[in-house]
Amino acid sequence: METASDYGAFMEKFILPPSSSSTDLPLNSLTFAVKDIFDVKGYVAGFGNPDWAKTHEVATSTAPTVLALLSAGATCVGKTVMDEMAYSINGENIHYGTPRNPCAEDRVPGGSSSGSAVAVGAKLVDFSLGTDTGGSVRVPASYCGIFGFRPSHGAISKSGVVPMAQSFDTVGWFARDPKILSRVGHILLQSPQVTPVKPTQVIIAEDCFQLSSVPYEVVPQTVIKAVQKLYGEDVLRREILGEYVKAKVPGLKHFMSEENTNQVYNIPSLAALSSAMRLLQRYEFKNNHSEWINAVKPDLGPGISERVSDALGTTEKDTDICHSIKRELRDALTSLLGDLGVLVIPTVPGPPPKLQTNSSELEIFRARAFSLLSIVGVSGFCQVSIPLGMYNDLPISVSLVARNGADGFLLHLVESIYDNIEK
């Protein structure tokens, strides 16, 4: 558990040395930590819950993603705390303690890859591995003031990773510096270093920024200035994304309810997208884990137990519509962005909430968060959360989104844009 110096980020510490002592490897001398959802030979992947850890075997092999990083010269220094069964974006764990947010100690670190984000934010490691199903890399990256990358769906092996919901599960990573983010990405994506390419268009999703409590001029404006400086005014476009999605994704009509249209400022089509994402996620989670949950009756913390219970009650009804929405959204966003276009959206609706905030108070924040997070969750595109420093003493960020498969392009773009953002 927490020692004075580790911010409560680690479940257990150990050293896995690089597989070669050569000094010219791309990740030579870098350290990293892994979320407690990855197999590491000789350890149990504890999935954030003590009952899971007690009832599962020690791993007999290490996840390929971890092995790839060791082969590239990095040293793994331990496993990090996560939300139970990866079923939260808050980062609070009743069993193992909540990792401390290095940017704001009275705020949540974000989940479910909380410990991995905190380890990077607190400078305990150079980078770390997490997973992102509904937002579990992007949210803690934003809350802890660091970079977080969610790759295109299917781009990185999920072998040796406990599944949450396969239609959305991805292996993501965190770094404090865009160059390290990029170096790690090229190893995990097994992609050659490509020459940076100018984006054909940078689209600001105007309506999405209305969901954020941070003033408009603070977030998109900083990106707009950097883009103008780098590529000129001509690549910039503005889009009301909710209207575009509503027109191009007919399957969403099924999830457009009175409730979705009447909430305090929201975007009905994105709220519907979020409903579809969470329904399919619940159904897949149930298929993966209901047998174990019913047999073991694990002790689950507040918020998690209610979500797990909802998942166990989910039926196959409407899951086929969710799959067609995934296809429709991917096609719609592919035609919006083209090969080298980028969408600019808020990562989350504002700074991290306070620790132990009552769940009903968080309701609107969560609903808005999932409206934003579902854009990439459902389309399977890649997204990076970029830290923009502090606003009112709390960390803020912005996200860039590119088409499925454009991960290398997006990693380069982050480096260029970040270098030109006025800090």
From TrEMBL:
Superkingdom, taxonomy of origin: Eukaryota
Coiled-coil zones: none
InterPro entries to which the protein is assigned, alphabetical: Amidase_CS, Amidase_dom, AS_sf
Gene Ontology MF term list: hydrolase activity, acting on carbon-nitrogen (but not peptide) bonds, in linear amides
Domain Amidase: 23-411
Family the UniProt entry places it in: Belongs to the amidase family.
Matching PANTHER family: AMIDASE 1 (PTHR46310:SF7)
Name of the protein in question: Amidase 1
